[in-house]
């Protein structure tokens, strides 16, 4: 007989039956199901035999075949719609060595900088690229998308402005999706938007000479689109000056490719520049994921949201990178946080940065000149045929006046294989990108009615930016750092990417046991379809008939997610967990307002909650009231009842995480949710810990009204070094009308047949749709039984680690059965009191043992939160347990005086190869103890590139762009 081939579930789950028997013996249960049923309260169990919409598990080959069929239903037209989204060439060296490389896509947010130097350098390159092109002082490590970045820019302006006004001015020529997002977000914060045609404002030539330019309204800030959505290029300098004179700040959304030829936002006085880096080699992906960007002028560095990479030094003075300033701001400042965005789009930012590294300033300028030349050529053809253009000055986008015939032009273009933008019945937009050919220009001209002579339009002789005034042409240099000039050949680029990857620790090296983060297997089969052109080269605003396969896949995934969570419908639009939180809270706000309960604005949040909860509540226009937790880490019921009573008439919502942030299944959860409902509030269940629940319980059955899910955790989308993520929002029927809508959505109905009418939460209708095939494939190949098995295996792994380490480190919280959920908190505070060894020392020493440290000091200072996930095998779990036990012994030796408190393997960790080879060894422990604490490392050692990094030095000496090469000599 042929050998038995293991199904996908067995490939995904790291422990087989024999390993699980060993683990169960350590935990004290006879079966995995018995263990999970003891941990999960009986009152919330679901019947796994119930009728399911989730089909039985498919094989990997079957899942790929189904995805191929879905992909074939997407029409691969040439997208020339524009509006901030462009087709692009991803250099193969970047596609193969970054996008498709697990060394890059399975890494986590660089909270442990010593083992994240590769991606941190890539992000420094990204920040340098953005600051150079925008002409501003400091850029962050990326934003979620352009429209979200504009909203964050508005909030920066509000915080930093000297104006007392609540008005924010919005360019009439802004991208329509950005205007939709601004309107939704501003309403909850009491910000009044005023749309202004800046072309009629000071500094812009009036349409008629006898007109007097209008005066700008008083405002705390203004937003300008540069170039405009219409393609118009103009000089905003006088508008900027007028806003500044009234005490306001100016946010400019700028196209980075255009900025290689046009004056930078910094040169005309903008305070904040935002936008997207998508056209720098990042596929369209039906809207994402893409890396937005934000840069600010000097003096606003500490107002930046998101992540900021800075340069510091390690223990021996070598330059090293780390996250700066507002790292994990939400956990420190909670409801006082200035943003709820706690991550970035790292993988995509790396791709965009490497696109700039590979092409360099001359290459980028050549690409931009080619785009501008072809646009000028098409403009000349259209004008020569008697057609009128809306704007005389442009870079890559034309708006063409076609009175009453827009639909005919659009249909002719579609018949030829092109997607153009229908602005209105008299105007059609067309955008040129780096993939546009002379034959494409000829086809587009034909669609506009020009005679088809069969010859391609020849751009020879056209002058780039011929229509743009000379004083708007860029004169200053950019990307002068050597990194943007050193890697022109593919050999050099390949080696640079490999060198950076070697400096990092990702799942392809070993376990990343980060509590609350669920670093599980991201299977190659799940990842395969992301690169297929039928999914990757699709514009987010393409006609519905061109994206039938995408819409079918999205509907299936929405349906499956609704079922496993116990909700009625799902929106996949939020492109991060933080945005899913915000969407859910805005849905609650919309529900109360629709019912006339305008006074319901109080949001109850347990003291243990993830920091973004409080920040999201504030951004949804709510007032945060903290609920205490008891000694077991559960919500304090007495305090909850007291807070509900105190705010009975103003209660909007309770936010809870289940299982709790402490990694425990709270047995009183039904009582908690009922108390909130009885008071007229809604229950938001944070889905961060869903990996401990799938198949055994459902948020909707717990009393949840709405939840966000983390597809980059529970549903196998890789973290990518801190992004991409997808944070869908799932809700009961009564909240469905208030879930995110979008002006360009290809369909109105969603899972369950519900229509959403809430405002936009992301720039694209389906958010980061380009990575949804990953989660679709995960559910399809696991099936309902496989999802349940994964939960059981994850809970078993966490309890096994807890059982084996309990004698060495107190396990801080457990449920009534003495069990944890999918993660356990190891309390290192007694160890510090006994030996002086800190949680930082243990985390850094784990690097010497070949591990990424667990989550440090969250949710309790001085602890490690360990989440092994279901994908790790028993050998890796045992290796981690034994490392922790050995480190405990080392700490005891320090406490006993065998090693000095200021010179021992823990306080000096991590140890580099240089440390044990170059230096004169004067430490009281051996070189072997330093770098080979266990013999198994001799052949498999991961060598950290730097010693322990001085965090405080980096904040005192803030440098957030590429340092000179000499710094690393």
From TrEMBL:
UniProt xrefs under InterPro entries: GcvP, GDC-P_C, GDC-P_N, GDC_P, PyrdxlP-dep_Trfase, PyrdxlP-dep_Trfase_major, PyrdxlP-dep_Trfase_small
HAMAP family: GcvP
Domain Glycine dehydrogenase C-terminal: 790-911
SUPFAM superfamilies, per database record: PLP-dependent transferases
Keyword Lyase: no
EC id: 1.4.4.2
Keyword Secreted: no
Positions bearing N6-(pyridoxal phosphate)lysine: 713
Homology family: Belongs to the GcvP family.
Gene: gcvP
Keywords: Oxidoreductase, Pyridoxal phosphate
Segments forming domain Glycine cleavage system P-protein N-terminal: 11-447, 467-752
Enzyme class per UniProt: oxidoreductase
Name used for this protein in its record: Glycine dehydrogenase (decarboxylating)
GO MF annotation list: glycine binding; glycine dehydrogenase (decarboxylating) activity; pyridoxal phosphate binding
Self-association and partners: The glycine cleavage system is composed of four proteins: P, T, L and H.
GO cellular component: cytosol; glycine cleavage complex
GO biological process: glycine decarboxylation via glycine cleavage system
The protein's required cofactors: pyridoxal 5'-phosphate
Catalytic activity: N(6)-[(R)-lipoyl]-L-lysyl-[glycine-cleavage complex H protein] + glycine + H(+) = N(6)-[(R)-S(8)-aminomethyldihydrolipoyl]-L-lysyl-[glycine-cleavage complex H protein] + CO2
Function field: The glycine cleavage system catalyzes the degradation of glycine. The P protein binds the alpha-amino group of glycine through its pyridoxal phosphate cofactor; CO(2) is released and the remaining methylamine moiety is then transferred to the lipoamide cofactor of the H protein.
